[in-house]
Specification:
7-stranded mixed beta sheet; globular
């Protein structure tokens, strides 16, 4: 088998895993962290930097920064806020595609996920407000590291919730938001699951989330 064919099959396998995983994440609405990385950026031959970033409440987060393809540089950084399961290794292939397109990509693990610090998680929570502190810390560090580039957040499912909750704290440091499966009404999700005989817990009053969402005044694609 030729090198090119092997590489194609390897990448196709990664893509299938990614698409399947995202589909599960979007349907599940259950926090299921994975502590083990099944791949790293160098698994696909991509240049990256690993950092440790501390949050305001003293949790250490693991972060990967994918270098942008210099021939296609967009002078733009995309921070990935992933859904409620797995860890950032699930999005290596996805992130490398963005990096190859000219974007610097920053991925991180929420507390309790991957190689970030331990955090007790109950799976039946819709999200944890503490995760917004994680994203806030990553945005702050990214804005200092890349002061002359545009910075955006790409949120997926629960990640859109975290991006919305973090926005008031990072306002002025990000230029755009992209939301895949954007959560605009968390209480509606709780109600929908109750009708199915399932229970989910909101970590705060829906009005608190609504205030954060209404504060967003930058370009938002969802």
């Amino acid at each position: 088998m030729s090198h090119i064919k092997r590489l194609y099959m390897k990448r196709a396998t990664f893509l299938i895993i990614l698409v399947t995983s995202i589909g599960i994440f979007e349907r599940a609405y259950a926090i299921k962290p994975d502590r083990e990385y099944f791949m790293t950026p160098d698994s696909v031959g991509w240049n990256y930097e690993e950092l440790k970033i501390r949050t305001v409440d003293d949790f250490m987060l693991n972060v990967w920064i994918y270098a942008a393809n210099p021939k296609r540089s967009k002078d733009t950084v995309i921070i990935l806020a992933y859904p409620d399961a797995g860890n950032m290794s699930y999005f290596v292939y996805y992130s490398s595609i963005l990096a190859n397109s000219g974007y610097t990509v920053v991925t991180f693990d929420y507390r309790g996920f991957g190689k970030s610090d331990n955090f007790e998680i109950q799976q039946d929570y819709l999200y944890y407000t503490e995760f917004s502190k994680d994203l806030e810390a990553v945005v702050n560090a990214t804005s200092l590291k890349f002061p002359d580039q545009k910075i955006g957040i790409w949120g997926m499912s629960m990640g859109t919730t975290i991006a919305s909750r973090a926005y008031p704290a990072v306002k002025g440091k990000i230029d755009f938001l992209i939301g895949e499966g954007y959560v605009t009404d968390p209480f509606n999700i709780i109600t929908r699951y109750e009708k199915l005989g399932k229970s989910l817990i909101l970590p705060e009053k829906p009005s608190e989330y609504k205030k954060s969402l209404q504060a967003i005044d930058i370009p938002l694609l969802k």
